[in-house]
Amino acid sequence: MPSHLDANTGDAPGKMSNSSGFSYGGHLENKNSITSIEYEPSIASRHSSIEDEGPVVTPHMGLLSSCNMIVGLIIGSGIFASPGPVTLKVHSVGASLVIWAIGGILSMIGALCYAELGTMITKSGGEYQYLKYAYGLCAGLTFSWANLLLTNPIGTASIATVFAQYIMEMAYFDPENPANAKANMPSYALKLVTIGCIWVVVLFNAFGRKAGAMIANVFTAAKLLALVMIIIIGWVWIGKGNVQNFQHAFDNSSSNALDYGTAMYMALFSYNGWNNLNYGIAEVKNPKRILPLAITISCTIVTIVYILGNIAYFATLPVDTVSTSTTVAMQLGMVAMGKGGAYFFALMVIFSTFGAVNGNVWAASRLIMAAANEDSVYMPPFFGKLDEKRDTPIRALVLVGVIATIWSIPGDFTYLANMYSFTGWLFYGIAIFGLILMRFKKSTKNMHRPFKIWLPLAMFFVLIDIYLVVAPLIDAGSEGVYQYIICIIVGLLAIPIWFVRVKKPWIGRKLWGWIPGYQDAGILKARERKQARKARDAAAALEQETALEQRASVVVDSEKIQY
Question: What residue intervals traverse the membrane (predicted)?
Fold first, then answer.
């Protein structure tokens, strides 16, 4: 993702966000929180030896503000859909709660690792920059490609699928037999609603610049209200003595270690957002002290909230209902408050997920603009243009809609969430292994690090990450592994494109030069400008040195004459 754009112009999107913290006039408002996997602003920082060339952001966030930002980054729509698939894999209440707890701990360690990366390398672009410094330009551009074609659109499609599931549950809901709604709904209708959600959001962003901000605000309120009410209802039911699901909580737990890797994927889908923390580091006062404390407190809060939410589901619903449902919030509402409660929670989740898709689409369109206007290795400059009449990136938005639509067709929420988590955690592991490498590389080992993670923790994270990437591949079997193979193939396609567009551009000219308007990658032009600037600076320095020598020679000659 070349989200290497200026923070003050608001052109720095990243993965995705369900945020109320951005303006649809094209400017980010970094003071607001950002949520889950849906959006990440990029901010230049002055706390590193590798700094952005853009304006310096004045640190203003203390511990409380930092905690608020981090909690907002993480809590998203996954908590309304992931508990079922997690329980289905591990087969027990106790094992499910342990998975959610471990997911929180892993997120905390990952966030601390990213805090070191973000305070050390503050150039806008996140993982693009980290991988570039650790492994080289090809790795950074491969991440950009994968984020444009895999992570962002798959995340968008997965959240749109949750939106569609709750819409369809409402349409086919039978209060007397709520479990039958899923069986009665046609699969094609679910796909149509998913695709419809994506394109309605695209139209909102294409033709109504300010509409998105309103959507984001409604979404944030809906998400928080629904989550708080779920937790309260759960504890009311526990107070009534509904604790049977917690007796012998680990009975029937899966004995297959691979099941736990796949279950962890689904839980970690809900924790996504911790990797965006570094995009707000520039605004944090004394990050060396505040960051680790804020990350520890905030990740602990999110983990507790998620565990309490899951306890509420298990206190209110039978385990079988939880494990087979991706609309657990609606099922809880039905049991606790009747038909009205079911519709209320469904509407809250619908608002939440619609806002999340809105944030994703907005962010992805700016990513595409960045890719087209900055390095233009993978994205033609055509997609970097704003519509003159509406001042919105209509071309980029349409492309976002097309890619997200393609990913929404082949599978359900679990399928998409697994693909998203696989791609995301593959790059998390590569980035944090790069952090370890940079501790020892000659060119980076002496870089200024305002905050340093304890190295064994980073190594532990990488080992767990390897398990999380490999286990689902094995667990999927011959029938399900193809979805991960598709991700790998699409990601690796970036390498030959980099080779012919950047490494050996003459090959690219030979292959595609006949296409009208074909241009070399913008990154090559940037290199040429940089080399030209260096040559001018060297020539100016030489000229200045020659002038000084001439003046010194004149002075010496003058002194000789006087003598």
Answer: 61-81, 93-114, 135-168, 188-207, 214-238, 258-278, 290-315, 342-363, 392-410, 422-441, 453-474, 480-500
Structure tokens at 185: 């709904």
Q: Are 368 and 400 in contact (CB under 8 A)?
A: yes
Give per-residue pLDDT as tens, 395-424. Answer: 889 999 999 999 998 878 888 888 888 998
* CA 107 vs CA 100, 269, 367: distances in Å: 11, 11, 24
Per-residue CA distances from 483 to 486, 487, 490 (Å): 5, 7, 11
DSSP annotation of 45: -
Asked whether 310 and 271 are in contact (CB, 8 A), the reply is no
Angle subtended by helix axes 93-120 and 287-316, to nearest 10: 160
For the record, the structure tokens of 505 come out as 């551009």
**Other CB atoms within 10 A of residue 10 CB:** 20
pLDDT digit string, tens, across residues 156-176: 999 899 899 889 888 887 666
Cα–Cα distance, 319 to 150 (Å, whole number): 33
- pLDDT, one tens digit per residue, over 472-495 is 888 777 667 888 888 899 999 989
CB 16 within 8 A of CB 364: yes
DSSP per residue, 117-159: HHHHB-STTTHHHHHHHHH-HHHHHHHHHHIIIIIHHHHHHHH
